[in-house]
Amino acid sequence: MPGPERLRESAPCPRKESGAARACGQPVGCMARCERLCGAALRDVLGRAQGILFDCDGVLWNGERAVPGAPELLERAGGGLARRRYSSAVCAARLLRQRLLGPPDAQGAVFVLGGEGLQAELRAAGLRLAGDPGEDPGAAPRVRAVLVGYDEHFSFAKLSEACAHLRDPDCLLVATDRDPWHPLSDGSRTPGTGSLAAAVETASGRQALVVGKPSPYMFECITEHFSVDPSRMLMVGDRLETDILFGHRCGMTTVLTLTGVSRLEEAQGYLAAGQHDLVPHYYVESIADLMEGLED
User: Fold this and answer.
1) Is residue 215 one of the residues assigned to a domain?
2) CA-CA distance, 33 to 80, in Å (whole number)?
3) Boundary (domain end) residue, out of 210, 241, 267
4) Is 55 annotated as a binding residue?
5) What is the pLDDT of residues 206-234, one digit of tens each?
6) Where would you tag: which of 118, 160, 191, 288 has the fewest CB atoms within 10 A of its CB?
7) Which residues constitute the catalytic centre (predicted)?
8) How many Cα atoms within 13 Å fall on the side-chain side of residue 28?
9) DSSP 8-state class, residue 51
10) 136 is catalytic
11) How many CB atoms lie within 10 A of CB 237?
12) What is the dihedral of CA 261, 275, 247, 282, to 10 degrees?
């Protein structure tokens, strides 16, 4: 994450020529070409960057194991700088706090499809959750939002209750992200939040507002704390359809790491098809490869 001592005082500005563009000899705004990031180009890109946004799973770790070299990179890159972790749960709480809080008689509740961590984040933001223990059913507040996150206990009953609340046209439908699935250590997959959100959307006939990547809303959450020039930020991720698309939408230089979901061949396929928002500017085998650019 960027450190305050390295950040400009101005608000995010339109994308200008960045170090990444100069490194590849092309103006910013040119199509990304998925070039390997190494050598002089790597040192130039990192040297000009205000800060780096890292995705987590598939980039810093896989499951419960750190990606080799990731802890050392963070220690080297982050020495003396401010680091902050942002999540779709934090962004969802911010959005719902903005939309739902008001006079006591106007406050509503959030019906959550998600785990304890997501629920705790909402409570910490001062939001009321539908069905909280100890709540008097007769005095329960009106549900004003349905939030879909990762829910290992997703069920037909929960889907039905969500749809019942969403019959109210003023009830918001929010999703933390659009990831369709997540890889497991044995090579299999488990459904992601995107799959659950799609079920709610199909059953309710509503379209969810997504707060996590690739929505620019997450970058809005970040710039609430840091004043940054997006053209001097790097977005490092492992998913083309979320991380890399997010970086492009926010005007950042994008780097794909091959330790997670997306493969280099997929990026090259998007490049050949002209789907440039899904093509990273650069790729590395692992974020450990970035260490070379930090060496004296």
Assistant:
1) no
2) 33
3) 210
4) yes
5) 999 999 999 999 999 988 877 889 999 99
6) 160
7) 55, 57
8) 18
9) E
10) no
11) 27
12) 70
pLDDT, position 45: 94
Is 151 annotated as belonging to a binding site? no
- Which pTM value belongs to this model? 0.82
In this structure, what token pair is assigned to residue 242?
């979320």
**Known binder of ligand: residue 182?**
yes
Residues 230, 195 share a domain: no
pLDDT of residue 83: 66
User: H or E segment at 218?
Assistant: helix 217-223
What share of the chain has pLDDT > 90, as a percent? 69
57 is in an annotated binding site: yes
- Do the domain assignments include residue 217? no
- Residue 32 tokens read as 């990304």
**Could you tell me if 213 and 246 are in contact, meaning their C-beta atoms sit under 8 angstroms apart?**
yes
In a domain, 219, yes or no: no
Q: Does the annotation count 57 as an active-site position?
A: yes
Strands, DSSP E only, in the chain?
Answer: 35-36, 51-54, 61-62, 65-66, 109-113, 128-129, 143-148, 172-175, 181-183, 189-191, 209-210, 233-237, 253-257, 282-284
Q: What is the token pair recorded at 20?
A: 């990444």
What domain range includes position 30? Answer: 4-84+226-294
Q: Which of 44, 57, 151, 277 is catalytic?
A: 57
Instruction: Please tell me whether residues 190 and 236 are part of one structural domain.
Output: no
Q: Note the pLDDT tens digit of each residue in 253-266.
A: 999 999 999 999 99
Tell me, yes or no, whether 11 lies in a domain.
Answer: yes
> Of 186, 210, 234, at which residue does a domain stop?
210
231 in the same domain as 139 = no
CB 11 within 8 A of CB 222: no
Q: Is residue 194 located within the same domain as residue 238?
A: no
CA 30 to chain centre: 24
The CATH number of the domain where 283 resides is what?
3.40.50.1000
